[in-house]
Amino acid sequence: IPPQEDWPSFVYIIPKLRSLPLFVNLGKLFIDDHAEKNPDKIAMYYEDVKITYGELKKSSNSLARCLADLGIEENDRIVLHTPNVPEYLISLFACWKIGAIPTLVNHLLKPNGIAFRINDSQAKLVITHENCYSQLRKVIRRCKLLQHVVVIGEAKKNHWKYYEMIKHEGAMLCNPKFYIEHFARLIYTSGTTGIPKGALTTYRQVLAACLTHAKHILKITEKDVIGGNPFFTLGFGSTNFTIYPWFFGASISIINHFDPNMALEAIEKHKITVLCCTPTAFKKILNVNDIEKGYDVSSLRLCQSSGDWLPPQVIVEWKKRFNRFIVDSLGANEVFYFCSANEGMPRSKWGSTGVPVPGYEIRLVDDNFNDVPPGMPGLMIMRGPTGVIYWKRIDEQKRAVKHGWNLTGLIYTHDEDRYLWYIGRCDQMIVSSTYKISPLEIEDALEKHPVVKECAVIPMQDPDRGQVPQAFIVLKGRVKPSEELITKLRNYMRSNLEAHKCPKRIEFVSDLPKTEEGKVKRSVLSQRFQ
Fold it and tell me: Residue 129 CA to chain centroid, in angstroms?
């Protein structure tokens, strides 16, 4: 853990955040307390299965007791390596009940990525699923500190069987309370800018996220059913599905893989009220002609996007076809959400990332840490009740915090009304002669062309200008690549952007390489085509 002098400054603007209890058991707070009040309330919908709060309490208690019997103690790291299934959440709550630290490992990772996270976290136990065990099996011998593997489904020799463990009828746990600065999870960054970094989150930060973004932006109550496609092991899904609902005693709808029709069927079947999807998922739904006419989605009151920038044309088309607004929220694995659009914002502000989430402060600064005026790009820095705490990465911690502020690595502008507009990442800006060009602006213009399904723009080395934009385009439907089409796209870009922003090279590709979160792997494009 980095020295506290390298931690960010935490500010508690909302009074409730200054009066949180000093000791808490998240498993009891999130599950048992609700189960005692209403044990028969549905907590999870999964396909045709319904699981109540009372059942969650019993299963998580049984698993927690078994984990303790295996020697798992307070602060031990337990890797959760499963797809989106109810057993993931039961395992998470069991960890919290005994003070262990859940370590989130996405089920789609390849063996090297799995091994890195197990070894870096120094995990003692892994809970995995039979559908992704084959990748874990290849690296178990490389994980020297790993003592136990629990398999959900068919367990292999020398591994523990999850379903046998939750049948355990041992003595009830006393639900010990832990200091509010105890660590609640270890979550890894996507690694798009280098080696993945483990970020620690305290109990206080978990509760702060619930009392800021969840309460004031999403306005979650016990009546809500939250549904969508984000993976539980990544920031968006971890926050919206494994934390928010349980603080308020709400319910969730789980789908284990994304399909546009499956997503809308779940809305109709489970009466989802808050739909959480990545920008890619919203686009895929909109790409299905008249899909909104085939399902009853009247239960929806709000939609939220996160994980990547949401183009304004998606917001407009979604509103037109589904009559619901998409709230685009900005956050990070390290710090939860700190900036967001909100319902009722003027239409002229659609496409902005909105304003700071209540409880947070945001500044845009220049290279000298001075605030920039409206309209001028600046580095976004933030502080609030959450902040960056890196695991075993002291140098990265020093680079992530300056004068107590969290450095986001994002370039934004703000207007006269203080709404924030995304320009791009510091490490993705294209420096061409004296110009700094945002790939996002070029991508936004290209994706408005009727033949473009999606695209990505990266810098290409140029002997005269240093760098120039290069575009990779996925075409819609049966549109065929051709030199004639390239010429048409160039003419279109010249009529919509300044000359220095027009891509010097256009490449047609069948798809774009993406992370598990749906973010484009620009480094892969750069290596593949340069």
Answer: 21
